[in-house]
Q: What sequence folds into this?
């Protein structure tokens, strides 16, 4: 079997671990594995190179993606999809494994209507916003990166008894904000999955101060409906009569050595993708739900929504009291 592997969309720590598992397990199951560089655009530009077990040496511990990534506009068009299908056919590919987020799953779904080969998606995004897997590859590392930064911000916040708003990534999802917020003891977490008004936020912060808290942290998901941390920080400063400090963590969340959890998840999912292909199973996202490796049809990965833990959500005020 001739298999192509690519990474697409935002890079995520441990994408490399997934590529390594796909390559080595694939080769040891008598497959030929080809790396496609630069995401879906790499198919159109024919940036296709055979991988050996040695090609994926020394990448297990590295963030980013050695195949490089991209967000191709050309690939989304009818012409682009037809061209990609023609190139995959000309290269005699039997299967394609793409590692990425919801945009990547949409890309695979669209390609399935143009190409007869076997398609499998692996969940690689720090946002954790794919249905069909409890966790996406890279999420745990991003949360730990943000947590490390928040612990440092807590030190300086305590030294001055200050209020800080810290913006984390996640695009339209609040998983990073929620996990980081709970783990750092934030007084409030603003995220797209919940609605918090400015008055409610001000009340939470003032209550924390009344309870003699020496510092107040508010975690803001970049996709929150109230706006970005800067805008919210200015409005909150007015409401509570104290200048709030704002810190936007940005891209440092996406880089760095992947955690043990992400390396293991990526390795399991990469190897499972090959097992699925050799069994003749394809056409969906490979993920882990309740410890079981499963496949979910591409479309469900973005049409169905993975909920934030409602029980823990209900405990936030107790935990930060
Ligand atoms: O989807 C991953 C992600 O890092 C989001 O959290 C963020 O909103 C987005 O990508 C940033 O995209 P770009 O790398 O194109 O700036």
A:
């Amino acid at each position: 079997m001739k298999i192509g592997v690519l990474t697409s969309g935002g890079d995520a720590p441990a994408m490399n671990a997934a590529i390594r598992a796909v390559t080595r397990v694939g080769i040891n199951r008598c497959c030929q594995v080809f790396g496609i560089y630069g995401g879906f655009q790499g198919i159109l530009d024919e940036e296709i190179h055979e991988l050996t077990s040695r090609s994926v040496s020394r990448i297990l511990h590295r963030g980013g993606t050695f195949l490089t990534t991209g967000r191709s506009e050309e690939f989304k068009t009818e012409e682009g999809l037809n061209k990609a299908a023609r190139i995959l056919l000309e290269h005699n590919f039997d299967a394609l494994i793409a590692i990425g987020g919801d945009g990547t799953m949409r890309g695979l779904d669209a390609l399935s209507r143009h190409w007869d080969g076997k398609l499998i998606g692996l969940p690689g995004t720090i946002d954790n916003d794919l249905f069909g897997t409890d966790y996406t590859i890279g999420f745990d590392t991003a949360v730990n990166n943000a947590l490390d930064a928040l612990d440092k911000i807590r030190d300086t916040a305590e030294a001055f008894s200050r209020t800080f708003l810290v913006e984390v990534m996640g695009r339209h999802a609040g998983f990073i904000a929620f996990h980081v917020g709970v783990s750092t003891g934030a007084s409030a977490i603003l995220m797209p999955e919940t609605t918090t008004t400015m008055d409610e936020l001000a009340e939470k912060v003032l209550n924390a101060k009344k309870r003699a808290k020496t510092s107040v942290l508010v975690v803001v998901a970049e996709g929150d409906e109230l706006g970005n941390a800067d805008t919210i920080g200015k409005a909150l400063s007015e409401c509570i009569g104290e200048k709030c400090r704002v810190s936007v963590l940005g891209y440092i969340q996406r880089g760095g050595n992947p955690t043990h959890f992400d390396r293991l998840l990526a390795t399991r999912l990469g190897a499972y993708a090959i097992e699925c292909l050799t069994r003749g199973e394809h056409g969906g996202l490979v993920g882990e739900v309740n410890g079981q490796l499963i496949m979910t049809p591409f479309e469900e990965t973005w049409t169905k929504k993975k909920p934030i833990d409602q029980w823990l959500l209900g405990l936030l005020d107790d935990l930060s009291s």
